[in-house]
Each structure stands twice: as structure tokens, then as C-alpha cells.
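Submission sheet (multi-component)
Chains listed below:
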Amino acid sequence: MKQGLLACLCLLSTLVSAQAESDLLTKYAAQIDQVKTLRSNFSEEKHLSLLDAPIESLGTLSFDKNTQKLYWQYQTPFQNGFLIEKGQVYRLQGKNKAPVQNAMGRMMAAQMVVWLTLDFKSLKRDYEISLKGREITFVPRNKVHKVVRQITVWLDERNPQIVTQVRMDEPSGDFIVWKFTHVRINIPLGNEGVL
Amino acid sequence: MTFFRQYGKLIGLFVLSFLCLAGIFNRPIEENMLALVPQSIKRQVQLFEHSPLSQKLIVIVMSPSAIQTTQISYDVQEKLAQAGLIKPIVQPTEDVVQDMLAALPARFSVSVQQITERKLSAPSIATQLTDYYEKLFSFQSVLVSELIAQDPFYLTEILFDKWAAIGNKGSNNYENGLLANQEGTVQAGLYDAKDTMADLRVASRLQKFLTECQLSLPNGARAFFMGGLRYTLENASLIKRDLGIITLASLTCLGGIFLCFFRAKRALLIYALPLLVLPPAALATQLIFGHISGITLGFGSVVAGLSVDYAIYVYFALQQTKTDEIKTLAQIRKHLGCNFLTSALCFVALFFSSVEVFKQIAVFALVALSLALWISLRIFPMYFSKQIAPKGKTVSLTVKPFTLRTACWVSILLLVFGIWGVTHVSFSQGLDSLNSTSADFKKDKQVTDELFSSDHNALLFALGSTKDEALANNEKLSDRLPHSLPVSELFVSHQTQLQNKARWQEFWNASRRNYVRLLLQEEAQKKGFKSNSFSPFWQWLEQTTTKTPSIDFSTWYNPVIELSQDLYAVVNIVPNDPLYASVADGNETVFVSASQLQKDLVQGVKKEALLVVCLALLFNWIAVWVVFRNFKETLLCFIPVMLGGCFLFGSLALFGVQVNLFGLIFLPLLVGLGIDYAIFQLMRSQAQKEILYPTQALLAAGLSTLAGFGVLVLAKHAVLFMMGLCALLGIGGAIVAALWILPVFKEQTI
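Outcome: structure written.
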């Protein structure tokens, strides 16, 4: 009887905690949804088993939610990146832009928009989502996902509208960390990305 | 008992007809394209039918955004497979790089060896590693890290390039089963339909599925399908609509004719005649050929028009004469026999064509006409012989022919009009003119044509009695060309595979392996790659030099087609260039371009039609001469045919009608019918037999043919419309000539 009661309490607390987590995620989703424009610097650190040491790139990004335009530009050590504009994906190479021909490339670029906007509706379909403080973890529902083992997103302690860091772990053990600095939201963006 | 004596034969005929009908529908009605083409281009059409694209169902998705289009395409693909409308998508492989590498030894030709040697030079290795290193910094790095470990020299690029060249695809991009335009906003999925490409039910299901799918698509996005199934659906929906209108119009016209000329219950038997003769004729055709074409059955309306003529002539002869039945029938038998002979000879001429459907039509028509003649002379007279008082007043006609002067002028004008028409009439060169499609279809087809620009491409086939022989012949063919055929390098004959594997093992000897390994390590260190980064490649190489694996690409794409039990062909998609046409000998190698094939087909059918018309004219000339034994009367018999033909061609040219193939098929029929009307008129004037041959009999017969056949002009379907138009103009012209012009010239000869 006592054990049964304890089990019920455990179950109840789990349910209550799951409900609280879901409420919080919904709250964050609503706040993030208010972000219409975004401009930031970023660093990208890749820990690859192929290489002796991690490699780091620095760059800038800007995003306009209304037009779904994303400009992702690496500045160092190589100047390249991609641009999503009017539904098209372009590869940026120096001052040139060319359409991304392969479907996988296009899908990967499109995924970046999902992560930047933290579109929970889309993400819930493909990932199991858990929340710990301001750290949100996404684990693919497809357990044999070839590219992603887990993705972790950190929200800013003071303003949960801002993503400060993203870490993507690959099944091979490789991982990539993006850190975002000088994040400004809901500011006029001008003509970034126009080449 | 009296009832059975009176109606037994008739009931027996209806029962027989019903049994034949059941027999026909016991077997499927097949529509084989090969049955429609002349022998001279049969092999080309047979090969073209087996081209990789012609067997595919094409589902096209378009939206303003490339990303959205890709997402929708994959979504639609998944739903189509779930709905069981397409065969499950076979993903090329879990690990494309691994499979491409595994495929390399068997495809290690001299040219591949040369490219490999270049890739293994020190500068190339340095460039390749620099390129790989830079890619690791890009947003697509996760896609390349595995490739770098497995293939540091990027040897798989050699085969990837050959795959890319296989479709001679120009500026479009083919990937993961999707062919996209430059912008990626229009993407076509190429699938294997679960069922046959001419199955109407499947086409309807697919259409319903995509219509429902459309509702869930974002604004501005569209999904539709093309390929054989779409043509089936378009043609079927149009024919269904046409059949309703045509049946209604035909029944109204026949009703009008009945009211004008018959007005008696028993005369209804005349219009029941087609029901009695067409099913046995169709069954006989099916038994002789093993199958029957829908076109042959469609020709039933024409044969029906011809067959009722016999019954009409018998009916009027028996009604008009006061003598006994036997005497009247004996008098009219010569005329009907002659009519049958001329019509039958037109169909006999079709036997000399190499088009199978023509032969089917010949058998079908000959059986039907023989039965119709027999029933008209043997069965119907007992029902027609009693004098029937028509309920109400029927038309009693006396046609006053033109004056000689008018008849001459009209004939000359018609001749000039006809000559001008023959030189100015335009024939549609495309097979599309045989399909009738909606405005939506035309828009969709334009989008599809932009993706699959078949005008620039052609097909080059290498034939062989076995798959391997076809592959070997394809390799020989490739050697004769300045640029090798990609298919010949990816799909290799057994003998060449053995040679290539031996070349591979010889190439990767121990000293080369060590040397290249050192070069790679040196460059890798400079870039910061770990020393063991490329172990997967070296392990794989070790395996291939001890045991060379074989990989079959045909699960990805199969260019080898089976034409018959001992005839195979390898398909190469090549530019539509005379260079490729010049290497084809027509036996071991065949070159087929869609545009040339269409021209050849139209030319071939034109030739066949001309041959059949000439033979029909010749046979009829002989037959009429045998009947009349008089040159002038024989010549007179051809006046309605000639003037009807002149009126037909002149009108077609005047109104700018593009004549399709079925317009040509109609010509022999015009010969047969036109001569029949002339024989009627000549018999009528012979020995003053007006009472046996009343004008209203000719008019009722002609109008019945037009009511059954000419109303097809109301159809929207191009084939039916063309047959109807030709009937209306040609037969209409022949009737007018037989009634108003022929008697004038006949009078002059007496």
C-alpha cells in the first residue's frame, strides 16, 4: 500500500515536472517568436576526429523572420557561407553567390533557420526535447540519424529570446559548437547579403 | 410454336451476338502502340517504348521556393509510396561513397586508370587535401568528413562524373531521384508506377490523390503528374464526354431519319443490324490476332454505317415492289453483291499494309459486312416483305440532277479545289495530335518539357542476344565514338570486368601503394590531418587487391532492356547529333530521336495510306469492270469518290485543318462508300429499275452513315473529330455527287 502510494507520488511528480517543462518551453517559444530580426557575430568550433586540433571560424549572421532571409557569412579563416533568400539557397564564395544545387545542401541550410528561430513546432516532429534551466536538448527520434546524435541549445540567462550557444554532437563523436556574441534583436537590418 | 417459327432465327442471332459479346470481354482489350506503326519503324518504336523515361511516372512539384519544393517533393514521394501508387523507393545505398569505391575496380578501364594516375600525383594530392580542408570549414562539413576518410584522393569523382553524364542532362540537376531546374523551383520525381501505365483506374486514383494533396500544399505550390497515365486520364475523360454528346446526337439524327423515311416498327430492325454483326466480327478478330485494339472496336461505328446500307436497300426494294419477295431479292442481289464486293475490296487492300491495326480492321470489317449481307438477304426479308403502312407520311423524294453545264462546271471547280487542297493541306507531324488534352494539361506539359528537353537528346541502342552481349556491343559502339558513352563505362560486360579488375590489381602494386601513402601522409601533416585519418581507405584498398568485389548498379538505374527472350538492348542517352546517327547500322546499333521518329512515323503511315488507297482504287476498278463490263460505266462509278475526295481535301486546306494520321486511314473507306453510291445510281438507271432503287433508299443509307459516323465531328477528341470531319466532308460530298452530278454524266453515255 505504502509502495503503491510512493509510486503514485513519483508518477505524479514526473507528470507535474513534465507539465512544468512543457509550459516553460511554450513560454520560451512564445518569447522567441517575438524575435523578428537578428544580427550577431559567431564563432564556430569544430572538433573533428580527422584533425589533430579543433578548427575555428569566425563570422557574422543576420536573419529576417518576415522575409525568411538568412545571411550566414564566415569571415576567417575562409570567406564563404550561404544565403537563404526568397526560398532559394545560395553558396557564398568570396564575393560570388551561386545556387546550391544539391538537395542535402539545401536542406542543411534550411535547418539553420529552424534552429535560429527555435521553431518548436517543426522540431517536436523530429526530436525529443528536454529542458534543464536554460539548456534545451534535442535528441533525434530517428535513432540511426546519420548526421546528428544530439543538439543542445543554450538560451541567454537574462533574455531567453537570445540563443547564446549551440552544440551539435555527431554519431561519430565529432562535435561542433557555435557561440553567438553581440546579439541584437528586432533592429532594422538594411541590405545585408545583397551581393 | 408460330412465334418461334416467326422469330426463332432472329432470337438465335441475338443470343449468338450476346455470347460473342461475352467472349470479347472475357479477354482484355489491349492497346499496343506497336500495332499502330508500320513495319519499317517498328523496331525503333519498340526500342523507344522501352526508353528509361517512357516507363516512368513523373510527379512534378513546383513552388516559388527551392527549399519548399524539395520538402514538398520528398513529402509527396513518401505519401505516394504509402498510398501504394508507386513502387517503394529504393534508396541507391546507405553509403554511396563506399559503393562507388567498391564499383571502381570492375570499371578500371584505361581511361579511368589515366585519370587515377593524375589524381595520385603530388600536386593533385596537395590540391585535393587543400580543397577538403577548406570544405571542413564550410556549413556542409558534416557531409564531407566521412568522404575524406574513405576517399582522400577523391577517386569516386571519376564514377560520379560518369553518372552525371549518363542522362546528357545539360543544365538540369538530377539528385536523389529528383530532377530539378537551375533554380530548384521545379522538381520532378521519377517513379515506377505500381500498375500499368495505361490503367485508367490507377490514373484516376493518382489524380484524386494529388488533388487532395494539393489542398495541404502552401500557397503558390503545385503538384501534378505526367507520363503515360496522365495521357490515359486526359484521353479517357474527353472520350467519356464525347461519347455522351455523340450518342445523343447520333440517336437524334437516326431518329430523324427514321421519322422521315421509315415510320414502321419493323424498320427498326435495320438499326439493330449492327448489334447482330459487330460482336461476332470483334470476336473473330480477337481469335485471329489473339487480341483486339480499341481502335478496331472504335471502327465499329464505321462498319455499322456500312452494314445498315444493305438492310436499307432490301427494305426499300421490298416495300416499293409489288412482285414477290424472291423475285425482288433476286433482282437486288447483284447490286448488293457488287456493293459488298467494292466495300470488301477496300478492306482487303488494308491487308497489304504492314500496320497490324489495319489488318485487324480488315478482318473485323470483312466478317461484319459478310454477316450483314447474309442477314439482310436471308433473315430480314421475311420481316420486311409484308407491305407495311407507315404511321404518318414518309419522305418521297425525286432529286432533280444538275444540268449538264452546271454539272461540268461544278465538277471542274471541285477538281481544281481538290488539287489545290492536296497541295496545300497540312499534316500534323506530331503524335501529340492523336491525344486530346485540356488547357491545364498543356500548361503542365510545357513545364515538363522544359525539364526534359527531349529535342536535344536522342537514344542510341546497342543490341545483343544476351544481356552480356548487348553490354559488350555497347562497349564496341563506345570505342567507335570520339567521346565514350558513360553507360558503357558504368555497365560493363563480364569480359571487360575481368580485364579491368586485373588492371586494377596490377596498378595498385605494393610499391605504388607505399609511394602514394607517403605522399598523402606528407601533405596531410601539413594541413593538420591525423596520421590515421585515412585508414578506412587503405583498409578498403587492401581488400580490393586481394579480392575484387563486384557491385551491380542496375538497382540504381537499369539501362539494359529485354525486348524479347533473345534480344536485349542497352540504352544510351546521347545528344541529337548526326554523329551518333552515323554510327548506327540499324542491326546491332539503332539510333532513335523522338523528333525523327515522329517524322518517320507520319511518313510511314502516309506511305501505307497511299498504298492502301491505290490498291483499293485498283481492286475496285477491276471489280466494277467485272460487274459492268463497260469502261464508261466503270469510270462513272469513280466520280462520287473523286469529287468527294476533292471536296474533302479542298475544305481541309481551306479551313487550315491539320490532318492527323486517322484522317489518312479514312481514305480507303471513302473509296468504298463513294463507289457504293455510284453503283446504286448506275443499277437504278440500268433497265429502268427506279422502283427497286428509290432515291430515298440512297439518301437514307447515306444519312444513316453520316448519323453514325459524321456526328463524330462533334467530338473534342482529335482522333474522333478527324474521323467525323472526314466522313462529313468526304461522304457528304460523295452523296451530293452521286445524286446531282453522276446521273447527268450517266445520261450522256447512254
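Remark: The CA atoms of residues 435 and 718 of chain B lie 6 Å apart.
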